[in-house]
Write a structure and sequence with these properties.
By secondary structure, this protein is α+β, with helices and mostly antiparallel strands. It is built from 13 helices and 14 strands. The protein is about 30% helix and about 15% strand. InterPro entries: AmpC-like (IPR050491), Beta-lactam-related (IPR001466), Beta-lactam/transpept-like (IPR012338).
Length: about 375
């Protein structure tokens, strides 16, 4: 199945980060000209529309290409809100690290200690999986979004239109994973799994007595004044301003294009349900990398990466991906994909240069090319 149709194209994002994309030659005009050209290339490749915002020492730059609505031809807006998919994971990891800093849990605690009996069956054993291994994807826990029946029900055409408004409880999502064998013994390898962050969200609720979304709101969204950012729960709409979201609902990039904007994001839960905009994502990652959300010890732990097989230019920390670009620049952040939406948000380690953007289609466009253009292309 095409990774673009799953909750996060982040597995592909992480792996593709390792393949150096040649730096784009800077068109005349300088500044963000290479980035603008990369956005145009994404639309030419088939993405309906793109919205992007970059912030650096020279100020804030915003750009759009393509359309928000294929029916009306309305243009995309720099203020568009969109489903950010697995960028949610960085928010979740930040909350768990804050809880550790407060002494309310340890990342070396086991899943079994917080969720007794939940990770059991077919070789899964929560007694051997620490919270750290959930956050850096070294748990070996099977990814529930890879389950064939789950894919047919929520990602392919017939199933999606019948089930797009279903509410899924996190325990149900974990149960799907437990019906399969783990990928490997905990701590022995790396494999991206959305189940890890469903479990992380459940641990936050156990540790605080409150839904993980409420903790994100009170600890991150409100202090940083992220006015476009929300954890929607079961709300099926995206707040305005926003574009339509388009998907193929197939295992190929061809065939009909469908409007998939409305859906119940509980199928993603803490693995990828959040909504934001590009300016908010830049503000969040700049605050995180700048040390405003975590003490030094926790931020260092978050940035301690593990190797990703086949990706020599990338490493995965705790809800945070480190990529070395073709020009030698390192950027930290995350990618996210969910029905009709593919997003990226990255920031340099010094928090001085950030970029966030969204494609309102899930089958085309090279996000890595846009990142390369912004950080390497106009040099």
């Amino acid at each position: 199945m095409s990774v673009r149709v799953t909750l996060l194209a982040a597995t592909a994002v992480a792996l593709s980060a390792a393949v150096a994309v040649p730096a784009l030659a800077a068109p005349t005009g300088g500044g963000h000209a290479a980035t603008r050209e990369a956005l145009r290339a994404a639309v030419k490749d088939g993405v309906p529309g793109v919205t992007a915002t970059a912030k650096d020492a020279h100020g804030t730059w915003r750009a759009t290409e393509g359309v928000a609505d294929l029916r009306t031809g309305e243009r995309r807006s720099p203020a568009d809100r969109y489903r950010v998919g697995s960028i949610t994971k960085t928010f979740v990891a930040t909350v768990l690290l804050q809880l550790e800093a407060e002494g309310r849990l340890s990342l070396d605690d086991t899943v079994e200690e917080w969720l007794p009996g939940v990770v059991r069956g077919n070789g899964h054993d929560g007694r051997r999986i620490t919270l750290r291994r959930l956050l850096n994807h070294t748990s070996g826990v099977y990814d529930y979004t890879s389950d064939e029946e789950f894919v047919r029900t929520y990602f392919l055409e017939d199933g999606f239109f019948e089930h797009r408004y279903d509410t899924k409880r996190p325990a149900e999502l974990v149960a799907v994973a437990m019906a399969h064998r783990p990928y490997f013994a905990p701590g022995t390898s790396w494999s991206y799994s959305n189940t890890n962050y469903v479990l992380a969200g459940m641990v936050i609720q156990e540790a605080t007595g409150r839904p993980y979304g409420a903790e994100i709101r009170d600890r991150i969204i409100e202090p940083l004044h992220l006015r476009a950012t929300s954890v929607p729960g079961t709300r099926v709409t995206v707040p305005q301003p926003s574009s339509r979201a388009y998907g193929k609902l197939a295992q190929t990039t061809t065939g009909p294009t469908y409007d998939v904007t409305a859906l119940n994001p509980s199928l993603a839960y803490a693995a990828g349900e959040m909504i934001s905009d590009s300016a908010d994502l830049n503000r969040f990652y700049r605050a995180l990398l700048g040390g405003r959300l975590l003490p030094e010890r926790q931020l260092k732990a978050m940035k301690t990466t593990v190797a990703i097989d086949g990706a020599p230019n990338a490493g995965y920390g705790l809800g945070l991906l480190d990529r070395k670009l073709s020009c030698g620049v390192h950027v930290w952040g995350h990618g996210g994909g969910i029905h009709g939406s593919s997003s990226e948000a990255v920031t340099t380690a010094d928090a001085r240069h950030s970029l966030a953007f969204n494609f309102n289609g899930d089958w085309a466009g090279e996000g890595e090319a846009v990142i390369e253009a912004e950080f390497c292309g106009d040099r």
